[in-house]
């Protein structure tokens, strides 16, 4: 096995072009488990942790570019205000040790249907910056997840960064698991309100082969919400939204939960997070009017 | 491959390190530092917790090659000579140690917490130690130890 240690992203891309089967390793919280248990013996590891540019984030005109190697702990500490949904999801990942090391780039690389950042990236219209020695391309999150643990990266590509708008409205993320820490989602849900565009983002995780948008639920809710004269939500709207979110899922029965439970729980998460998000929106409107 | 790393303030070198090996294996089997424990090798138990460049991580999930030229501090590096760190002392005095397998990881995690938050609340202690499992104590004595160490610092 080779251990490749590029110091710059350009070097890393050159190495990946030469050895497309080299496995990138960032925080190692997925890769090392596979190595320790002998589930994987790649011909080479490509260590990304020496590349300073991947560990940086920047904000220009409300647009954030988060380097693929920024660990969850720093997203929580530094980006909670601008990317509340991503920070909420990051807080639920693993344990402090895992959050100190694990990265969004690694979550995307692994592309597990249960990865916690995925619903948030979908709901917030994130775009993934994929790079190779051939150039850079921007992949909308909705086109990134192709199947269980499969993503849209070409063999010579690496994830450089994730692009997101600073939240234009309230965002929420919620996940169901068997305990509070260190738990893979049984199912998860993210919602993002875009008041200026009168649009809603909603996505489910751990409830289909890939994380996915709940498109019908998004459209229904965007039409029902009274954006200009916000008032408390009708229960019937919350309920219908929950049903449509559950319908967007195609879950399986597995050790973590049954398909029926997942659908039920998603409807509950959707109603609840919508309530919180709309409450945030109402609070903001009243403050602005006062 | 060869790995050169600063461990507990001392520059160390290991040769013939397998490229897929973990930092935990490097510490225990090649550098003679068995303080960090191996219980799960999948990040679940925290008994392998060490500082990597001042940040607590599971050493079983760090590739040995990733620590080249970096700084690692293990539980062995907390005491000053014969004088235990206050967190270690508090664990002994509070009876927070039974079989002791989880102790090194918990001591490092608690040490880091008190460095960041000198007077942590109970929820803060629980949150900070959520990545460390103990099958013996039922955690109450561990919480006592952290409170004791905080009170003394
Ligand atoms: C105990 C434990 C608890 C966990 N809990 C959760 C949880 O609650 N929620 C959750 O979502 N996940 C969880 N995970 C999984 C893991 O921590 C996350 O998926 C994390 O985001 C992976 O990031 P990493 O940097 O450690 O990735 P790595 O392990 O370094 O890499 C993961 C994958 O992505 C690829 N990769 C990494 N960086 C790039 C890049 N820049 N370009 C292209 N490919 C890349 C790697 O080749 C690999 O296939 C947990 C893991 C453990 C061990
Ligand atoms: S041995 Fe590393 S977390 Fe259990
Ligand atoms: S004292 Fe035995 S596992 Fe904690």
TrEMBL record, chain A:
<dbReference type="GO" id="GO:0071949">
    <property type="term" value="F:FAD binding"/>
</dbReference>
<dbReference type="GO" id="GO:0016491">
    <property type="term" value="F:oxidoreductase activity"/>
</dbReference>
<dbReference type="InterPro" id="IPR036683">
    <property type="entry name" value="CO_DH_flav_C_dom_sf"/>
</dbReference>
<keyword id="KW-0285">Flavoprotein</keyword>
<dbReference type="Pfam" id="PF00941">
    <property type="entry name" value="FAD_binding_5"/>
</dbReference>
<keyword id="KW-0560">Oxidoreductase</keyword>
<dbReference type="InterPro" id="IPR002346">
    <property type="entry name" value="Mopterin_DH_FAD-bd"/>
</dbReference>
<dbReference type="Pfam" id="PF03450">
    <property type="entry name" value="CO_deh_flav_C"/>
</dbReference>
<keyword id="KW-0274">FAD</keyword>
<dbReference type="InterPro" id="IPR016167">
    <property type="entry name" value="FAD-bd_PCMH_sub1"/>
</dbReference>
<dbReference type="InterPro" id="IPR051312">
    <property type="entry name" value="Diverse_Substr_Oxidored"/>
</dbReference>
<dbReference type="InterPro" id="IPR016166">
    <property type="entry name" value="FAD-bd_PCMH"/>
</dbReference>
<feature type="domain" description="FAD-binding PCMH-type">
    <location>
        <begin position="1"/>
        <end position="169"/>
    </location>
</feature>
<dbReference type="InterPro" id="IPR005107">
    <property type="entry name" value="CO_DH_flav_C"/>
</dbReference>
<dbReference type="InterPro" id="IPR016169">
    <property type="entry name" value="FAD-bd_PCMH_sub2"/>
</dbReference>
<dbReference type="InterPro" id="IPR036318">
    <property type="entry name" value="FAD-bd_PCMH-like_sf"/>
</dbReference>
<protein>
    <submittedName>
        <fullName>CO/xanthine dehydrogenase FAD-binding subunit</fullName>
    </submittedName>
</protein>
Automatic annotation (TrEMBL), chain B:
<feature type="domain" description="2Fe-2S ferredoxin-type">
    <location>
        <begin position="1"/>
        <end position="78"/>
    </location>
</feature>
<keyword id="KW-0411">Iron-sulfur</keyword>
<protein>
    <submittedName>
        <fullName>Carbon-monoxide dehydrogenase small subunit</fullName>
    </submittedName>
</protein>
<dbReference type="InterPro" id="IPR051452">
    <property type="entry name" value="Diverse_Oxidoreductases"/>
</dbReference>
<dbReference type="Pfam" id="PF00111">
    <property type="entry name" value="Fer2"/>
</dbReference>
<dbReference type="InterPro" id="IPR001041">
    <property type="entry name" value="2Fe-2S_ferredoxin-type"/>
</dbReference>
<dbReference type="GO" id="GO:0016491">
    <property type="term" value="F:oxidoreductase activity"/>
</dbReference>
<keyword id="KW-0001">2Fe-2S</keyword>
<keyword id="KW-0408">Iron</keyword>
<dbReference type="Pfam" id="PF01799">
    <property type="entry name" value="Fer2_2"/>
</dbReference>
<dbReference type="GO" id="GO:0046872">
    <property type="term" value="F:metal ion binding"/>
</dbReference>
<keyword id="KW-0479">Metal-binding</keyword>
<dbReference type="InterPro" id="IPR002888">
    <property type="entry name" value="2Fe-2S-bd"/>
</dbReference>
<dbReference type="InterPro" id="IPR006058">
    <property type="entry name" value="2Fe2S_fd_BS"/>
</dbReference>
<keyword id="KW-0560">Oxidoreductase</keyword>
<dbReference type="GO" id="GO:0051537">
    <property type="term" value="F:2 iron, 2 sulfur cluster binding"/>
</dbReference>
<dbReference type="InterPro" id="IPR036884">
    <property type="entry name" value="2Fe-2S-bd_dom_sf"/>
</dbReference>
<dbReference type="InterPro" id="IPR012675">
    <property type="entry name" value="Beta-grasp_dom_sf"/>
</dbReference>
<dbReference type="InterPro" id="IPR036010">
    <property type="entry name" value="2Fe-2S_ferredoxin-like_sf"/>
</dbReference>
